[in-house]
Write a structure and sequence with these properties.
This protein is mostly beta strands. Helices cover 11% and strands 39% of the residues. It contains five helices and 27 strands. The chain has a seven-stranded antiparallel sheet with strand order 2-1-14-4-9-10-11.
């Protein structure tokens, strides 16, 4: 387990066992590699507005400040023992609308780190490479995630990990999701590279890769329960809010003039077809298959989008920061942009109302 603390959204969680497993038995232990992740909505501001603040003096002086600055930028400043790290990010590069996720990842022994800013579905990101980042003292990280750290109300949560957390494409189905194969339904957790699944055309296509990631069950990762029998579901399933359904039929053609549309699960909340997942453990694991041409797959009877990679294999920097980095570019396909439009929340609600009438 790499995540050891989550704060925000009414939650305050720390796992002592994860700290011991990471070799951090007490507050004076040094975390030589790890990640700090937070999700937020960027405000419109005419003056600098702090999103995250923490400072302490003493024998290990430290100051961390993440601020929204006029003009739509983000300023990240980290001072540790006299060393100053300062980067400015431009959220317009990833689209300012909607929420954003920032990850500061450091690896002191390797003398490298990265600061990434991405859309919540991982579809676009901006990366700033960092040189010679310093380790963190555990007690400072615990204080940052506790009452001594300042989180602005527009920050959904802050999470801390003892690993270099990836950015980019994110799986969005639970491992327990049943997926249609030529031999019947199988749990997604049992699928491996080379197995066959049924695409929307009914054709059997090979699974190129299967990826899984554990994340905080908050913000953009908070599960959504899609309810049967809507959208062809044979049973309720839980998905991440950014998992998209592929919906077709006469209502779709009538309302949108398209043979099919893509609907993020989060846009269905409040329609009766989807509910927030029950609050439970602070962490959740998501899994998804990579298919050759980004074909939709049948998850418990509903057409769901497989993991979209776009041209990730052509971008060494983005690939290196992603969950798929260990696989290498040669093991990944290239996906064309989806040809169907993505419905906004209002249009998704209209379509859901037609389906439930």
């Amino acid at each position: 387990m790499s995540w050891f603390a989550v704060s925000g959204g009414g939650h305050s969680w720390c796992d002592p066992q994860a700290l011991v497993a990471a070799g951090l038995p007490d507050g004076d232990s040094l975390l030589v590699r790890g990640s700090l992740m937070l999700e937020f909505h960027l405000p419109e501001t005419a003056r600098p507005e702090p999103l995250l603040l923490y400072s302490q003096e003493g024998d290990w002086p430290l100051r961390l400040a993440l601020q929204a600055v006029p003009g739509g930028g983000l300023s990240f400043v980290l001072e540790q023992n006299g060393a100053v790290l300062h980067r400015t990010l431009n959220p317009t590069a990833v689209g300012r609308t909607g929420g954003l996720r920032l990850i500061y990842a450091w690896d002191a022994p390797a003398r490298q780190g990265r600061l990434t800013l991405e859309r919540l579905d991982g579809s676009q990101m901006q990366i700033a490479a960092l040189s010679a980042p310093k380790p963190w003292r555990l007690r400072d990280l615990q204080a940052l995630a506790g009452p001594l750290g300042y989180l602005a109300p527009i920050v959904d949560y802050l999470a801390l990990s003892s690993s270099l957390e990836p950015a980019g494409p994110v799986p969005a189905l639970l491992p327990s999701t049943p997926v249609a194969t030529p031999d019947g339904y199988r749990l997604l957790s049992s699928l491996q590279r080379g197995d066959l699944v049924l695409a929307s055309s009914g054709e059997a296509v090979p699974v190129l890769q299967v990826v899984e990631r554990q994340v905080p069950a908050l913000g953009a990762f908070a599960p959504v329960r899609l309810r049967a029998p809507y959208f062809g579901l044979q049973q309720d399933i839980h998905v991440a809010p950014f998992q998209r359904l592929v919906l077709s039929g006469s209502e779709v053609e009538y309302l949108f003039g398209q043979p099919a549309v893509l609907v993020p699960a989060g846009n269905l909340l409040g329609t009766g077809t989807a509910l927030p997942g029950a609050a439970g453990a602070p962490l959740i694991s998501y899994r998804q298959a990579v298919l050759p041409d980004h074909e939709p797959l049948l998850a418990a009877g509903a057409m769901t989008e497989s993991l979209f990679l776009g041209r990730l294999r052509r971008d060494p920097e983005r690939l290196a920061a992603s969950l798929l980095a260990p696989l290498g570019a040669s093991a990944l396909p290239e996906h064309r942009q989806p040809k169907f439009p993505v419905l906004r929340a209002f249009d998704a609600a209209v379509l859901a109302e037609r389906r439930t009438a």
